[in-house]
């Protein structure tokens, strides 16, 4: 089996951590009788510098024609003064829209080795294992009309539209319920249906789709309460199913429970048979870029997620995750997850430790 | 000085905690040479039961014609099956819109006596003192167009509009900057300007208004990052200035840092000279209603906020806050904030302890 993978290293620490992930994939390949054909493309600030656009057509086409995309991170101060439609982050929206990546899976799992990195008390976060299923190509991120317009007196108003159709809700709901079937069997759908019509339709459709998944327990929660409950008692959650904007906010809050977002991978998936995109939750960390200080583990775990979700190579994915665990058990840490009594490694040395493991 | 106050006890524990707040106000009045004229009106589920509508015209008019409004809480399972435009919560939106309450001030302050109630580590939350300034009559809560419509094939779409005009942004920004001047002098404006046009206008106007407040330090943060930072390092925040929906979510997250939302008051203010509305952050807690178990302290602290913000009676407000502190120092607690070695009181006994203090 040969898999065609587009690599998008992007900006900041992106290239360093991507190098580690590729080395790990290459090391694992022969053991599972698979081969990878890697192609690297420009994205984000690096693409702006080279072509003037954060997501060149050539990049999007390459992604659409590959079996999966592995992205590192985009953005940095250097491009913060660009007009907003030409910022590095626009590449993410362009990839999501252009590849039809409507389902974003963001796990927030407390690793026992890193539990002290959390700002929450041990007893509150121990065992937390949340999967946020975020709708990624609809809602207020893509809704129209939108813009900034002036009235007859020159007074401006800015506006965006939060919108969902029934089919958009139905398909992400199915992703949520199916994920729950493979986990602990419960879905908490988060909306703001006490105020928003779009949320009323959301709640109605999610409730209706639930009848196809009798083995899954469905509950509903308002988004403000969900933000509280993630802090008050995060163990109550299995799958959180929610819209694009709410998922953006809540997945970051859930990720921060772990205290180590340098460890968290994510998957963005489209229709069956279409390529998915895999990337760490953290950003491009321009302040530490090129200094061999970055934590490559979220990138490596994103590669494992790719093996599992895109290629159904669950054993190869397990092997990578086991290597990460082994390295952590041995007390090896990058600076961001450093703790008393552990050994501090740079990005390159962490990669070597993974290969050895 | 005589102040005309409309009392809106509402549902659940509302009437019990309101009784305590009124008793405290009456006890304090002669000491500061003030008198109160209280009138009680129907709101929420109680109003639905009596009149069929959660916010009867008579209630809104009474509120508009008083010097301030003290609200307890609305809602309960009993009314959850009502059509959404007739639910108890609609009364809140009706009061905010009808009274022009565009500025919502939600303090989240860690009380030293209750620090162990937080799910976060002591060193993370010790000294946290955040004021969320939330815009309350604009944004996606009130934006039009909105609705649920079907296309020619009967496929429905739900939509809402997130919209701000320049004057709406300017006036809430001023509230934020002025609050910061009386606090620690810094404002963090939260938006999603990397994706939303409405946020781009928000950021532009807030930045422009900041030039009138040279003594205040302004920073900007994306809402997803803000949700993370509230968990990662809440001490970095003084005033968080944000829109209606983001403020709904972030103020609840910030409140939960304290671990004791039964303690948190809030103020909703309109144009100068118009009556404000004061209410606890917590809900109507129907499960414990009528059992003398409720914590009246947030309601009492809301009354103190009313004295300070609506009537400029800072000393009387201080006296109430001092009494609350004294009672907590003496180890008196309601069930929700109970801790080892403390004395558990019911709602009525807590009220008596306050009067004694
Ligand atoms: C960079 C930004 C456009 C993006 C988003 O809001 O979706 C990011 O925050 C994320 O969550 O992937
Ligand atoms: C009940 C609801 C309409 C309300 C809101 O969303 O504003 C509440 O959550 C609040 O924050 O006061």
UniProtKB/TrEMBL annotation, chains A, B:
Pathway: Amino-acid biosynthesis; L-leucine biosynthesis; L-leucine from 3-methyl-2-oxobutanoate: step 3/4. GO terms for biological process: L-leucine biosynthetic process. Binds 1 Mg(2+) or Mn(2+) ion per subunit. It is found in: Cytoplasm. One of its GO terms (molecular function) is NAD binding. Substrate binds at residues 96, 106, 134, 224. It comes from the Bacteria. Keywords: Amino-acid biosynthesis, Branched-chain amino acid biosynthesis, Cytoplasm, Leucine biosynthesis, Magnesium, Manganese, Metal-binding, NAD, Oxidoreductase. Pfam families: Iso_dh. Gene3D superfamilies: Isopropylmalate Dehydrogenase. NCBIfam families: leuB (TIGR00169). Homodimer. This is 3-isopropylmalate dehydrogenase. It comes from Pseudanabaena biceps PCC 7429. The lineage of its organism: Bacteria, Bacillati, Cyanobacteriota, Cyanophyceae, Pseudanabaenales.
């Amino acid at each position: 089996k040969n898999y065609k993978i587009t690599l998008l290293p992007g900006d900041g620490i992106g290239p360093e951590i991507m190098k580690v992930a590729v080395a790990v994939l290459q090391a694992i390949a022969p053991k599972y009788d698979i081969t990878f054909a890697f192609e690297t493309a420009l994205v984000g600030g690096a693409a702006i510098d080279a072509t003037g656009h954060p997501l060149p057509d050539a990049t999007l086409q390459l992604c659409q024609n590959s079996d999966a995309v592995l992205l590192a991170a985009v953005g940095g101060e250097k491009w913060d003064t660009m007009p907003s439609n030409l910022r590095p982050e626009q590449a993410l929206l362009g990839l999501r829209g252009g590849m039809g990546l409507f389902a974003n899976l963001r796990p927030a799992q407390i690793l026992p080795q890193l539990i002290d990195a959390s700002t929450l008390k041990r007893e509150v976060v121990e065992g937390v294992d949340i999967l946020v299923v975020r709708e990624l190509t609809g809602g207020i991120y893509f809704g129209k009309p939108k813009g900034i317009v002036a009235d007859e007196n020159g007074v401006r108003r800015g506006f965006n539209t939060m919108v969902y159709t029934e089919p958009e809700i139905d398909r992400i709901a199915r992703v949520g319920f199916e994920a729950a079937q493979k986990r602990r069997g419960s879905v908490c759908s988060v909306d703001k249906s006490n105020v928003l019509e779009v949320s009323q339709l959301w709640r109605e459709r999610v409730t209706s789709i639930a009848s196809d998944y009798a083995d899954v327990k469905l509950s509903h929660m308002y988004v403000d309460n969900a933000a509280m409950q993630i802090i008050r008692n995060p163990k109550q959650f299995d799958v959180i199913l929610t819209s694009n904007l709410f998922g953006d906010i809540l997945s970051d809050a859930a990720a921060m429970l772990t205290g180590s977002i340098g460890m968290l991978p994510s998957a963005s998936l489209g229709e069956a048979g279409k390529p998915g995109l895999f990337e760490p939750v953290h950003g491009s960390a321009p302040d530490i870029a090129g200094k061999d200080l970055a934590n490559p583990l979220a990138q490596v775990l994103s590669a494992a997620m790719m093996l599992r979700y895109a290629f159904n190579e669950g054993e190869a994915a397990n092997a990578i995750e086991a290597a990460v665990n082994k390295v952590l058990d041995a007390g090896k840490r990058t600076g961001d997850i450093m703790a008393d009594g552990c050994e501090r490694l740079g990005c390159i040395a962490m990669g070597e430790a993974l290969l050895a493991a």
